[in-house]
Amino acid sequence: MVGVGGRSKACDNCKRRRVKCDLSKPQCARCIKARLQCGGPRGIAIIQYGRGITTQSDDSDPARSSALETIATAPANIQQPVPEIHPGLSLSQDETFTAFTLLHFLPTSGVLGVAPGTITTKSFLALATTYFGIKRQDSAITQFGLKRYSDALGAVHSALEESISSPTFDLLEAIMVMSLIESLVSDRENGWINHARGLERLFEMRGPEAMASLPCLMILERTRPSLIFAGLILRKPTIMSNIEWKRDPWCLHPERVDSLKLMFDILADCPSLFVLRDKLSSYPDEETRMTAARSLSEEFQRVVASLDSWGERFASDPSHTPVEIPAVRTTPITEDEGGTLRSAWSTVFRYRSLYHANAMAMYNATTILALRFSDSIHVGSESPFERHIRKRRMSEAALSICRSVEYHQQELWGEQGSFALLFPLRMAYDGLSEEEPTVGAWLQSVIHDISAGKQGLWRSAKSLLEIGR
């Protein structure tokens, strides 16, 4: 038609940045240069799906049965809507929901593979419909999205029963999307945890080498944090701590090994430390317990050394240092020992990108986790000076997280900025709330606003301060 431009085939990042895309697959050159996750040029299938072999389920496979029980029997804490709502939903409406979600929910993540006829399509349309309904405060559309969630959960259930030892890429990506929906609409603390543990079992069935293709690797990169967080909360080890899971999936794409990936390598070692710590009280005599405690302390010191090394490497690049600007009006007011009122911090951080902000937030959160862990094992004597240094370092890490909140919650990042803040916010609260109760109350209000949709939209944040207690 004369005067009407054709639909751009540029990838979503280039289209949003209004630059020319070279249409390279699987990633365009501009996205590689800008270190953005590229979904490739727009087309019928954005990410090519691998086809797994399916057959009748074998009930003798305990790993698959466990994954099925964990994921498929974990419905969201929602009231099941009736299927008659919006029975004639048109394709144009689905496109509207999808475009809205990609723009506002996932603006910097590249495009999910939503090829027609896949379980991921069902899952993503459930996410897009629910998200659109919530943001527009349209209860009918929201309920229809939740109905789609229920249908997609049924499709996942069927696929789990049919899969053999190697679950398909489609199934893995669908479960990843289902976990996002659970975090979005459910305030149950175990909803997303069930999805994460089930997904980890499916990864284990595939093996690390089978996750080396770019589409599978991107799924692993997006979900690995949740798998580690679930292990921390449940006090159970994660396969992500195994050396082969830190190495093999990246063997074909070493360029994707970055600072944030290496930080999660360190964090992945922490769940097993808590498992070993909790076993200390079960030893029958003091000598055995102290021997185990000293061994645990050595393991802990290795984690701290890795953290310190990571921090030094990251800080050695001047571009990683954030710019400081005057603090915003919502900064909490504290009272010093002399009774003088002052802002808890005078400046906030502006990072080069959300990636850099996330890396520093995770570093500070992991630092707090490690320092609090050291308080719980009580090995050897500690001088008052050493205790003072540890507490000061913990406070500095917590305040650094607080000073990044405003940057993370910029509208530019959609819901991703607030999502990346959830674990750091919990760690900041643990590290600072007793010493600075005013800042602790402020952190509670930030978490409440994320749960209520005032800043970000993650109902799972409602239980953030209770989980793992």
Automatic annotation (TrEMBL):
InterPro entries: Osmoadaptation_assoc, Zn2-C6_fun-type_DNA-bd_sf, Zn2Cys6_DnaBD. GO terms for molecular function: DNA-binding transcription factor activity, RNA polymerase II-specific; zinc ion binding. Keywords: Nucleus. This is Zn(2)-C6 fungal-type domain-containing protein. It comes from Alternaria burnsii. PROSITE patterns: ZN2_CY6_FUNGAL_1 (PS00463), ZN2_CY6_FUNGAL_2 (PS50048). Pfam families: Zn_clus (PF00172). Gene3D superfamilies: Zn(2)-C6 fungal-type DNA-binding domain (4.10.240.10). Residues 10-38 form the Zn(2)-C6 fungal-type domain.
